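Lay summary

Proteins are chains of building blocks that fold into shapes. Our project writes down both the chain and a compact code for its shape. Here are two examples, one after the other.
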Amino acid sequence: MPSNDARNLLQIAVPSAAAGVIAVAVSAAVAGGKGALGAGIGAVLALLFMGIGLYVLQWTAKTLPQLFQAMGLMLYMAQLLLLFIFVAVFKGTSLFNGRAFAASLIATTVVWMAAQARAHLKAKIFYIDPDSAKNEKREKTGPSS
């Protein structure tokens, strides 16, 4: 992973993980052990889904840039589908608190998206390739008198 990708991941994952830890602490105080377990599962699931999604999008941008936007849309749809499947499987479970799970999942995801937007805005991304301008000879235009 290039250093700028690792730096972006660090700027995104650390605040998201902190939000997950806060959600676990609040859920433990409000709903006890099952609340903490539900919040932990929600935070880990959000971090896992979003981290894998970021990796896939970075790989797509490097290898198949023409499919980047389509892959992003497909990836987010797949993440939602997998999340709905997970929620449907554990709908009536007594293993963890469902409200704490949902609150933690939403909070961690929102913090991830906000941190990702902030990291992208602060990134110094070239819009042109500076090396290509150096390699081309400049042609004189207009009359030379």
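And here is the second example, written the same way.
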Amino acid sequence: MRTIETTLDAGGLRIGIVAARFNHLITRRLVDGCAERLGELGCESLDVMWVPGAFEIPLAAQQAARSGAYDALVAVGAVVRGDTPHFDYVCQGVTDGVRQVGLECGLPIAFCVLTVETVEQALERAAKPGEPGSNKGIEAAEVAVEMSSLTSRLRRDA
């Protein structure tokens, strides 16, 4: 049995964050958490691309992936359930779209699009240091770096 190890070393990696402006209070916190963690992991090349809402994330991610400028992307958004089925359509569209881009382009994309029932739930998942909860942007940063490490290793070993 062979074990393929990954690292959380972002030195030399080029990372892009595609973030939805809608629900900016929440997405800004996620982006900040992600960027801070990437910096701690050694990332010195980070671009943040803002799009109007979560539904627009897949197209921007596709264009960023096709550009060849990035080793990994992070998709950041927050969709809060309302009184109409719009929530379901947006959540399904962004989820399917991001998955499709990652698979078609062969580029790791960490998924940090919150799909929550309330703003309070979103804030718990986008907590600032010292606040109760966690910041999913931090976790997404680690996912992007680890998956970039794994895909790079797999390509090199092929």
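What can we say about the second shape? Strands lie at 14-20, 45-51, 72-80, 109-116.
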